[in-house]
Each structure stands twice: as structure tokens, then as C-alpha cells.
Amino acid sequence: MSASKVPEILIKKHPQQRLSSPSRETSAIIHLIGLASFSSSFKFLLDNPNYASEGYGWHFVFLTILGLALSTLTFTIAFLADITLARRLFLLKNVLSVCSAPLEVLITVLYWGIKSIDPKLVMPEEDVIPLYADLGFHLLPTLFMLFDLLYLSPPWTVTAFPAMGISSCIAFGYWFWLEQCYSINGWYPYPLLELLDTKGRIALFTVSALLMAVNTVTLKWLYGRVNDLGRVEQPKARPGDLKKPDYHE
């Protein structure tokens, strides 16, 4: 097989995938559409300033916006990998995905779950946003990250214990960031946090860390179901491995 044909083959299918991934061009288009969606959400923040716009930390006091920023970074690296076929960019994108995909799922589950109980717990009444913007912040990033995971990425090899470590670092790192912002701004970004004392916030972030770890393990299982990994011998692969089939000269 000529060296010129290898790059085209490398991106089609990972040895642990049953389903062939979309073409390089399709992958780039999907990532570009995702970036357009994420950018429109950031534009909404700029066009519709609120109390967080002038506060310390800007809108990055919200877990939603931190997740959106991480998803934007993940898709930016993914798009660059699509157009350059740089192996290190694929590696970096897949490492970022292990954090960004479970985090977006966590944000979606927490936001819509709490909002179904009482919308005023996640957003003050005076800051209600249009449905299209709400979906752009709290649903579309999850859908884009799930599609990228299931059809454009190699399988994760992260296990439950490392998943718990990653999620704990993110959850409690965000809590410390919140407290730093609160010490300067004098308010928490989510009304629910205003109602909780310190023990309550610790419990909330502990549960969030557990949920994110469960998300990671569940997404890994879902990947296996979609790609039917149980039916074939599973070759060893690292999370950052470029999708490549077994091929012969």
C-alpha cells in the first residue's frame, strides 16, 4: 500500500469500531457546525449582558459556560485535526473529549432536572432567556459531543477509578472557583447555591462529581453498544489513538 493512501484510510475506522466513521470532509463539517453553534451562544452573552457581564470571572462563573468553552476548545482541536490529519491533534482532541463530553451531559442533566422542579433554582426570573438560547447552552453541546464520541472518536479506556478522579477534580475545582468569585462579587451564579449552606454545597458538588463519573462510565458503555465491541476481539488501544484499521501492504 502506498504511503499516499494511508492518511485517508487512517481516519475511516478504528479497530474497535464496528461502524465506519463519516469521511474526513463530513467530520470537518460536523465540527464546524458545532463550532458555529457554540459561537452563537457566546455571541448571545455579548449581545445580552446581565449581572455576570460586569462581575469578577465574567460568565465563566457559570458551569454551563465553562463547559461550553471546553467543548469549543475540543471541537476547535478536532476541526484542525480533520483538516491537517495531525496525529497529535487527534490525541489532544480525544483527551479533551474524556472531560468535555461527560461534563456536558452532567450540565444537561442537572440543568433540566432542577429546572423541572423549579426554574427559579437555576435562573432568576429576570434573566429568563429564549428557548433557542436555552437549548444552545444546555442541550446542543451535549448532542454534538455525543455524536463526536460515538462516530468520530476511538474508544475510551478510562476506568471507573480514574473517571472519579477526573470528575472530582472538575467538580471541586469549580467549587473553589465559585468561592473565589463569591468573595469578590458577593453572589453565587445559581440561585440554588444561595439557598444552601457550606455543607449543602459540599454535598451538591460531591453528588455532581459522582454523576459525572457515572456519565463517563455510561458513555464508555454506550460507545461499546453502538460499535458492538462485544462481538469482536478487542485490540488494545489508548484513548488518543488515531482511528486506524488493520491493513497490510
Automatic annotation (TrEMBL):
Domain of life: Eukaryota
Keywords: Membrane, Transmembrane, Transmembrane helix
Pfam families documented for this protein: Far-17a_AIG1 (PF04750)
A GO CC term attached to the entry: endomembrane system
Stored InterPro entries: ADTRP_AIG1
Membrane-spanning ranges: 58-83, 95-114, 129-151, 158-177, 202-223
Subcellular location: Endomembrane system
UniProt name for this protein: Integral membrane protein
Organism in which the protein naturally occurs: Talaromyces proteolyticus
Lineage: Eukaryota, Fungi, Dikarya, Ascomycota, Pezizomycotina
